[in-house]
Amino acid sequence: MALLLDIVTPEKKIFSGSVENVYLPGADGEMGILSLHAGLVTALQPGELRYLVNGKTESLAIGSGFAEVTQTKVIVLTDSALGEAEIDEANVEAAMKRAQEKLSGVDHNLDAEEVAYLQSVIARSTAALLFKRKNRH
Fold first, then answer.
1. Is 99 helix (H, G, I), strand (E, B) or coil?
2. Torsion angles phi and psi, residue 45, rounded to 5
3. What angle do CA 106, 110, 112 make, to 5 degrees?
4. Buried (b) or exposed (e) across 20-53, using 16+ Cβ within 10 A?
5. Whose CA, among 23, 30, 77, 117, lies 20 to 30 Å from 40?
6. How do 56-62 and 81-82 pair as beta strands?
């Protein structure tokens, strides 16, 4: 029995189709989803999302978000989803460095929202770099 997967970012639908399985970077670690999985809603952390379609494993670096799982469908709502070719290491490293400098800088007038945003930039950047470097070869 096939599993329908939808991957959606605020900008567009990244993927919609039938897959054999899905591996998600859950808040408590990686989780594998097959058809007839128990229903759940879970938070996602930045990391690698993998899915098997027509015998081929596809993967994306995703940001934080949520996944809704039913017995026949997985819906992934994430703030970013990038393939290996879409990740520019130099730009990602520069964004991460700027965020780290702002967090550790002498300007301690950052409010909680700014701190959370900078931490999310660092987490997404780290996940994207790890994904790019893992898949480079």
1. helix
2. -110, 160
3. 140
4. bbbbbbeeeeebebebebeeeeeebbbbbbbbeb
5. 117
6. antiparallel
CA distance 66 to 75: 8
pTM over 0.70: yes
pLDDT tens readout for residues 75-86: 999 999 999 889
pLDDT digits (tens, 9 = 90+) for 16-37: 999 999 999 998 899 999 999 9
Cβ atoms of residues 125 and 62 within 8 Å: no
- Amino acid type, 54: N
Q: Give 33's Cβ-side CA count (13 Å radius).
A: 31
Residues 6+ apart with CB under 8 A from 64: 43, 44, 45, 46, 78, 79, 120, 123, 124
Instruction: Tell me: pLDDT of 71 over 80.
Output: yes
Q: How far is CA 49 from CA 45, 61, 83, 99, 127, in A?
A: 10, 6, 10, 24, 11
Which amino acid would we find at residue 123?
A: A
